[in-house]
Amino acid sequence: MIKVITYGTYDLLHHGHVRLLERAKALGDYLIVGVTSDDFDKTRGKINVQQSLEERVAAVRATGVADKVIIEEYEGQKIDDIRKYGVDIFTVGSDWIGHFDYLNEYCKVVYLPRTEGISSTELRDQKRLIKVGLVGYEKYLNKVYKECQFVNGVRINGVCTQNSRELSEELLSLDTTDSLDELLSKVDAVYIHSHPKYHYDEMKRALQAGKHVMCESPLAETERECRELIAMAQENNCVMMDSLRTAYSTAYARMLLLIKGGKIGEVVSIDATCTSLRTNSAVSGEKWGSMPAWGPTALLPIFQILGTGYSDVKITSRCENDRSVDVFSKIDITYPKAVATVKVGTGVKSEGELVIAGTQGYIYVPAPWWKTDYFEIRYENPEENRRYFYQLDGEGIRYEWVSFLKMINAFAEGKAEESAYIDNIDRSVSLAIARVMEQFNNGIDVKYI
Ligand code: C2G
Predict the structure, then answer these.
(1) pTM here?
(2) Distance between Cα 409 and ligand 1 center (Å)
(3) Residue 360: which domain range?
C-alpha cells in the first residue's frame, strides 16, 4: 500500500484545495492530511485564518478524500509524521516548489500544479473589505499602516492628521486631510491615535456617523465620557475597541491564563514599568506626559489580573512647568489583599520589566514587557522554574487588527455578543483606565515633586 501525506491550512475550503487532495490521493492508496493548528499558523505568519481548526478539519473530512486527518502543530513535525506513519510520498502544491526538497531523505516529494485563479486570501478579501481611515499622531500611524499590510480584508484609504510632516511616503500617497468629517465620509471604520484629550470628540463623531472605531487607550479622559461612548457604540450598532497592542501578544495572553490557573498561587503584588525617552515636541507639537503616553499600557496587567475593585490609587508625579506634562509618574494601587505599582516615564529611563508576585511563585517578564514574546515562572526551588516563548510579530499590532476585523464581521452577521469574546480588553478594564487618567488630570491624590 502506498501512503501519501499532504498538509495545509484549508481555510474557507475551495476547489483548489479539493483538487489538490484528489490528485494527492491518486498518487497512492491511502491519504493522510495534516491540518495546521491555529498556533502553528500564527508562528508561520498566517494570522487571519477565518475558520477555527475544528471547522477546517470538518471541511477536509467532508471531502471524503482523506483516509486520516492529523493536526500539524510544530515546525519539523513533517519528518516525525513521515516516519511515524511509514509515508511513501509527501505532496504539496507547486507554490512550495523546492521548499520541501529536504524531505527526499525520508520519502518521495511531489509538487502538484496549483489551481490557478482561486485562493483563500482572495476569498477572505471578498468576504469583507473594510475601508479604514487613520486619525492622529503621524509617526505611529506609519507603523500601523505597515502592520495592516499583513492583514487581508482591510484597506487603509485615508489619513486625518493635523500635521503630515512625519507621514511616510506610502501614507502621503493616500488621501490626507485635516478634516475628520471628510475622512469619515469615505470609510467604514477609523483607527484613532491622537492625544487622549481629543478621543471623546473624535470617537463621538465617528460613532454618530455609524463608523466602527478602534482607539488607543484611554478611550476618553473621564469615566463618564467613556461610559457615554460605550452606550453610543451600542446604540449605533458599531464596534468600539480599546486599543492596546500588548493585550494581543500571545505570550502576554498565555501568561494571564497561567495566572488564572493558579500557577503562582494568589497574586499579591504587581510591578510594571514603562519608559521611553522621547521629546514631547516630536509628537505633533502636542505635549504628551508619561501618563497619556504609557499609563494605559502599564495599568493593563494590573486591572486584568487584580481586577478593578481597588481600594485606593495614589499618584506621585514629577512635572515640567506645566502640571499636565509629567516626565515621570508612579502610581500606587492598593487592593484589599494586594498591591500594585506602576512607573511610567517619558523623561526618565528605567528597566521596562513586569514582575507579578504570588503566594507560590512569581512571573518575570523582561523588558520591554509590553511587546513581549517571553516570560518565566520562577519558584523558591529553581528546578521548578519554567520558561515560555511565543512568537510575536509586529508588536501585536497586526493581531489586534485581525481582532478588530473579526469584531466588525461578527456585528455585520448580527452576532454582536460574539465580538465581546474576540475583544481582549474587558469594558470594566477600559473604564478603570479612564478613571485613573481622570484622577491624574484632576490632580486628585496626586503628589507633585
Ligand atoms: N492549493 C492549490 N491551489 C490553490 C490553492 C491551494 O493547489 N489555488 C494547495 C496548496 O498548494 C497546498 C494546499 O492546497 O498544497 C493547501 O493550501 P493552504 O491551505 O493555503 O495551505 P498552505 O499554507 O499552502 O500549507 O507547510 C506546508 C503547508 O502546510 C501547506
Answers:
(1) 0.89
(2) 25
(3) 247-397+430-448
